[in-house]
Model the fold of this input.
Amino acid sequence: MSSADIYREIILDYYRHPRNFGKLERFDIASRDTNPLCGDEIEMQVKLGDGMKIEDVKFTGKGCAISQAAASMLTELAKGKPLEWVRSLAKEDVFKMLGNPDLGPSRVKCALLGMKVLKTGAYGYLGAHYDDPEEPGLR
Ligand code: FES
Done:
């Protein structure tokens, strides 16, 4: 089995059994967005703890395996990190989580939808403005 096959299996596992899927009863940040190409959406909720750390994060949504798996993996990566960490999160981090698959432009949007939602929520909370590099000029 090649490493690409292994990552494909991992993506499918996260799609079928998404970690941190659901809603938080109490949260400090909520944001959602859609992939304009397909209309699929992701919503994320973040609960902050001491020192503005991401104490808990959950997501809901519908979409393809890549979008849902990437969002789920991102929630695992984000837990316990300071909210400021979200600023330094880059699309390369998401591609790496997914095993650097060979993605066409439309699939890149799928992969980055969760990151966009998390960044939009975090930037809103931090009082900053997030410019999505995949959609320049739209915000
Ligand atoms: Fe809709 Fe991937 S096809 S998010």
